[in-house]
Each structure stands twice: as structure tokens, then as C-alpha cells.
Amino acid sequence: MDNIENNIRNSIISGDNPDFLLEMFSSLVEEAAVCMYVLRDGVYSYINKRFSDFSGYTKEEILNNPQALAMLIHPEDLAIVMEIIHNRLENKDAKSRYRVRIVKKDGSLAYTEIHSTKSIINNVAVMAGTVIDVTEEVMVNQLLKENNERFHSLFYTNPDAIFTFDLFGKFVDVNPSCETLTGYTAEELLEMSFTPLLLPEHLPKTMDYFEQALQGFTNCYEISIYHKDRTALHLEVTNFPKKQDGEIVGAYGIAKNITEKLLYKKQMEDLAFYDSLTKLPNRRLFEDRLQQVVEMAKISDCKPAVLFLDLDRFKFINDSLGHSLGDEFLILVAQRIVENLRKGDTVARIAGDEFAVLLPTTEPQEAAGIAKRLIASMREPFNVSGHSVTISGSIGIAFIDNQHETAFDLIKKADTAMYYTKKQGSNNFTIYSKELDFKTIFKVAVEKDLKSAIENNEFELFYQPIVNLKTEQLNGMEALLRWTHPTLGVIPPDNFIPISEESGQIISIGKWVLETACRQNKEWQNAGHPPFKVCVNISTIQLKRPDFVDAVKAILHKTELAPQWLELEVTESILMENTEVVKDSLRQLKKLGISMSIDDFGTGYTSLSYLRQFAFDRVKIDRSFIEDIESDLNGKAITSSIIALAHKLNIGVIAEGIENEGQLGYLRDELCDEGQGYYFSRPMPAEKHIFPYGSKNY
């Protein structure tokens, strides 16, 4: 055996290849399953077939090639290899087993483990060894290392709380974020289970999800826990099973703090679905709830109703108190509405001073009772930062009528009924009927046709005499507008004047009335009749316009009527206007020499004390008080008081609606200055009045 070994060594060193060694060498070395080599002076003197196949180089390219090592070894590892070979040959301590990277002929990289041994053959030191491909092992280890590092990074540096439980719900491991989230240290958490952290009402749900995780299911849910300082936190938790050797040994958990997210979500919902001032549902949420009730009504016996409530005179209150106190007042109104509803009813602020109430199920009598209760509650004084404020409300009620109605339909019907209430005097309620829709259609038609009424000569002025009650001589004429519609016939002023004010058409109509009345009065003067005032009603909307005084000047100039023969009548509501534009306009009109009077005095919300702010020449006592003179002592008392107080303020008094001798006699006894009514003359077109006017004409 020693001779065979020596012969093999000599053959390798000398390059001789005796035939008797070839078969044995080929069997033992050349066909070995591992790469084998012999290095002499840093040059490969032998490699086996496996080495050649592994590297991709032929033996000719490697053997006796001084550059073969540099060609095969990765540049970063070459110095290490050369140092190991040198130290080994010099009998210094050196690794006999080490790993380097090999660069194959195709450029791919392989990780290898080299086992080398120093041998002396024929007095020549050589390095013989094997090369084992450990690429797969290295890659697996590298992947494992990366996974461990990734896990460490995800677990310990994650901003979310990550933890593991054993089968009993006790903490096994926690990351630093768990400490931040709960306020407990890691040591404290590892001594407890999750149950003490939970709000009691969330314990059953959490236990159920934990059991699901132990059965192999992943779940995600929201719960609330107590921080160590006992403040409540809202969490989004994900649980999934923890396995070891294929067995479930616990559960993993990830908890995200969503407290701020939920607060933000609630704020966004409040902005989207709730009124920011009163905190009541807004129109959007109200319509959604109403639609749900409407759909439920189609398959059940519930009978929903909608109440639409509008505050009367809120604009005046808002302007008087200021918008800040006006907002405070609306909050108090909202609270009072809620207090007077049933549990389960919904009240919403629709816009401004408009509120809507949803009664999910009710009967007409019950809904009417609720409306009466709300109206009565509105009349109770409100204490707004020390100010006692009273108000009234107008309500419209609509009930579901058929299977095809929507939330929008019900709200529209309730709004229509409310509008009708307002037109009938407010402070009441109206139940919607189809008749109201006819009135709405009428309103739309009137508004549309008003635009062309002047152009089509459909307007006409009637004039009613104003008589001196002492002498029964003519003191003036009140101009009264009449409209003959081409298809609807004569439309009373009470029906179209409010519509013209809402649509803004009162501006052009009022200008036409004023110019026509001034021109007619001038024509009467030119005809030689004794001059008298023509009285023209003007709207508050006209008076608010900054160009109104200039418009009056232009009309007087155009018609050549002197200012002292024009009297402008305004309704009592003008006294409630607290705008400088109105006050300034009244002052300028007075300077022009135009008289000013208040129509329908005594029916509004003011008293004669307001007249001190304005230099009015006359007040007109409303016809309702004159009608009561013969039957109602209160009517007499009010009439007498108005006359006496007006005279104290040097203001003339006109009584409207005089129809008989009894009324006339009482007014004369009370020293009322002037009067008008059917007793003297009905309103008539200008051409039907007979001059000269005097007692013999009445």
C-alpha cells in the first residue's frame, strides 16, 4: 500500500502517468463527488473532473495557470486565501477549513468551503484539498438571518403594539410599543393577562375572538381598554394563531391605537350629519332617517309624519340682539323643541330658523297635539343672556299618503303647509292637503305672470277718498293697486303683493304705482280741482333700497307734482327695522316735504313710543278696531288710546274701514282727524270720481 501511495504521489508531482495507476486514480479521485485540487507555489497542478465541472473551466484553462487563483477566487476573498496558503506552508497556525466565494466561468457566484492540507511530496511542499459547494446552505442561513433581523425590526421597532399570548391569554412577549400604549412596563405586562386591561363590556367579545385565534382563525376587531392611568383607549386588534412544530401554542396580536382616528371620524360625521350650532341632526341626516322610516312604513303599520317649524320674526330678534346672542337663542329654541317631543322622535335644524321634526309613527290627533305643545312652548319667554325674548312659530304637518312617497315629498308637503300657516297669520299649524298644492301652483303662476303685468297693462289704480271727519271735506286719496289677470280674473292685492315682495318684483311694480298715482294727482290739479294729497303704499323692501329717495325725486320731477301733495304709507312693521338705510331714507323724504304715514297701526308688535324715532305725520287705525267699536269695549278703548296718544305727539289720526253712522259718531266724539271707508266711498278708478268732493257727494 505504501508503494502505491508513493507511486501516486510521484506521478502527480512529476506528471508521469503509469498505466497501472490510471484506473485506481480515476476511480478514487477523478470521479470523486467533491472538487479536489493540488496547489504548488500558488498554481494548480491538479484538479479533478468535479472541480472542472463545478467551476465551468477546463483543466487546460486552470492547470499550470498562474492567474487561475485570481480567476476563480472572488477579489475580496483572494488575499485571505493567499494568506492562509502562505501561513500553512510556513507551518504557522492557519485555518485548514475556511469559506470563500468562487466566481464561475459564467460569472455566477458560489459559496464554497475549502478543506486544505499541507503535504510534502518529493521534498516539495504542496497544498491539497477539497472544495465543497455550500451556496444553498449559505443562502438559507442568510435568509434566516434576514428573517430574524426583519422579525426583530418589525417586532421591536414597530409603532403598533405587538405581543404574544400563551394558551391562557397571558402575555409571553411584548414590544416597546405595548409599554407606550398601555402605560405598563414590559415586566408588568409579562406578569398579567389581557383581561384586566379591557373595559368590562368588551370582555366577552375579546374572549370570543381569542378562542377563534386558538382554533386557527385570524380576526380583526375593535375594542376599548384602560390605560394604566385609567383613561380609555380605542384599539383595532388583529389576532392570529401562534404555531410551533405544527401545534398552536398561543396567539399573536397586533394593536393599533385608533382613539384619535375615531374622534376625527366622529368630528367628520358631526360636520356631515349634524348642525354645528345646535348639535341637532342636519337636513342630510334628517332626510336619511326619514327615508328609512318611509321604507319601513311600506311593510308595516307605522304612520310617520313630518312637522316643519319656522320661527316668526327671528330676523328682527337676530338683528336686535346681534348674531352672537341670536345663535344662543337658536340653541335654546332647539333644546326646547327636544324637550317637548317623545322619545324616539327626531328633530333637525334644516336651515337658519327652520326646524323639522320626524314622528316615526303617530296619528293625526297626536301629531296635532305635539304641534300645539311646540307652539305653546315657543310663546314662553326665553332668557338669552339676561334678555327676555318671546317668539312664535308656524308649523306645517304632513303625513305619508301612499306607497310611492319619498322623504323629499314629505318634507316638501310639510314646508308647503308651514308656508300656508305663515300666510294665515302665523303662530299656528296647518295639516297638509292637496288643496294647498293648488295654492302653491297658483303662487307659481302669479309670480311668473307678474313679470309681464305692467307691460301688458294689466294693473290699474283705484282711489279711495280720505275725508276730514269734522268738515267732511276731501283731504286726500289713497291709491290702491288692482290686477286683472287675463285668465285668473281679478286677483286681490293680498294674494299677489306678498309674492311680488318675495320675488323682488315689488320694486318695478312699486315704481309704476308711485309714478301713476303722482301723474293722476297732477292731472286732477291741472283740471282745476282743489289740491289734495295722494297716498301711496310703499313696501319696506323699496324703502331699504339706497336709491329709493332718488327714484322718488325723479318721479316727482317727471310728473311735476309738488312734494307736499304726496304721502307715502308704510306698514307698522317698518318701525321694527333697525337699519340706518331705512332711517336715513325716511329723514331724506321728510326733508323733501313728503308726508309719511303708518298704515294698519295697532296690529303689529310695536307701540306709539317707537314713533319718536321717526317724524311720521299720520297713523291709520286698523279697520279691525273700527269694526269692534259698536260691540267691543276693548276696541273702543284701544281706538281712543291711539287717538289720544297720537295727538299728544302731534300726529294726525286716520280711521280706516268706517261703514256706518255709529262708527263715525264715536270717532268724531273722540276727535279723530280723518277717515275713509265704504261709508264715504268705495275705491274706484280715477275717471269715476266726481268733483268737487264734499258732504253732498257722500
Automatic annotation (TrEMBL):
Pfam families noted in UniProt: EAL, GGDEF, PAS_3, PAS_4
Domain EAL: start-end pairs: 443-697
PROSITE patterns found in the cross-reference section: EAL, GGDEF, PAC, PAS
Domain annotation GGDEF: ranges: 302-434
InterPro entries in alphabetical order: Biofilm_reg_signaling (IPR052155), EAL_dom (IPR001633), EAL_sf (IPR035919), GGDEF_dom (IPR000160), Nucleotide_cyclase (IPR029787), PAC (IPR001610), PAS (IPR000014), PAS-assoc_C (IPR000700)
Record domain PAS: where: 41-92, 147-217
Transmembrane segments: none
Superkingdom to which the source organism belongs: Bacteria
Coiled-coil spans in chain: none
UniProt xrefs under Gene3D superfamilies: 3.30.70.270, EAL domain, PAS domain
Segments forming domain PAC: 96-146
PANTHER family: BIOFILM ARCHITECTURE MAINTENANCE PROTEIN MBAA, DIGUANYLATE CYCLASE DGCP
Name used for this protein in its record: EAL domain-containing protein
